[in-house]
Amino acid sequence: MRYPKIRELIEAIKALVKGPYTSKFPKQPHQPFERFRGKPEFHEKDCVGCGACVNVCPSGALSMRDVDNRRLLEIRWDICIFCGQCQANCLTEKGIMLSHEFDLAITGNRESLKQEIGKDLVVCQDCGEAIAPYEQIIWIAKKLGPLTFSNPSLMLFYLKSQKLSSAVSEAKQEEEFLRADRIKILCPRCRREAVIKS
Ligand code: SF4
Ligand code: SF4
Q1: pLDDT tens column, 161-174
Q2: Residue 62 within a domain
Q3: Domain shared by 108 and 185, yes or no
Q4: SS3 for 196?
Q5: pLDDT score recorded for residue 75
Q6: Mean pLDDT value of segment 117-126
Q7: Among 41, 47, 63, 181, which lies 20 to 30 A Cα-Cα from 79?
């Protein structure tokens, strides 16, 4: 016959005095520990749509696509492995954050286990190609401070956001670049062409 070890006896006595270590979930709500990594959620007002979180997500739970001048970001909780890389690498540090929510089991359609947000994109004034989300450019301009004025696209965009310029117009394909085209919101390819050809 094997006798219980001293350590096991101590644990048994502790459990008798303090009660069982396990929680009574789902009969009683379970309160996760402070650093528990639960369901990640986008916080739309703090997200600028940069896509950094999508690039670091190891499971492919995060995705983004640009449709009709809108950047759509999606998180699938049925694919997420709760590693926390999205939160750790978020540009604004608050755009996506892991919550304490862990009870994600459903019996219905798993397609409902997702969250989608959208951000308006700024387009090149010459070719119409998407450059970056509006909020991301404003975020960069604020970070750069006076250095914003070293880049014509950033400068024009920042002035417009402050209602100091109405320079932004619809994209229109010009035959050739003129010198005045340098002071436009342009994608990197068109900016390069404008500088070389004008
Ligand atoms: S917690 Fe990890 S797996 Fe889940 S969305 Fe964030 S980066 Fe992707
Ligand atoms: S701001 Fe944060 S949450 Fe939003 S797209 Fe960038 S990294 Fe992802």
Answers
A1: 777 766 554 545 55
A2: yes
A3: no
A4: helix
A5: 98
A6: 91
A7: 47
- The residue whose CA is least distant from atom 4 of ligand 1 is 80
Is residue 13 one of the residues assigned to a domain? Answer: no
Q: Is the dihedral of CA 123, 132, 137, 148 positive or negative?
A: negative
Asked whether residue 159 falls in the same domain as residue 178, the answer is yes
Q: What is the pLDDT of residue 1?
A: 60
Band the pLDDT of 184: cuts 50, 70, 90: confident
Residue 4 maps to a domain:
no
Q: Measured from the CB, is residue 132 less than 6 Å from ligand 1?
A: no
DSSP class of 83: -
Q: At what angle do helices 134-144 and 152-161 cross, to 10 degrees?
A: 100
Name the residue with tokens 């995705």: 63
Residue nearest to ligand 2 atom 7, measured at CA = 90
Range of the domain at 179: 124-198
Is the pLDDT at 98 greater than 60? The verdict is: yes
Q: List strands edge to edge, sheet with 114-123.
A: 62-67, 70-76, 114-123, 130-133
Q: Which amino acid is at 133?
A: P
Residue 35's nearest CA partner among 82, 3, 71, 74 is 82
Rounded CA-CA distance 17/14 in Å is: 5
Neighbours of 10 (CB within 10 A): 11
For the segment 39-67, what is each residue's pLDDT rounded down to a tens digit?
999 999 999 999 999 999 999 999 999 99
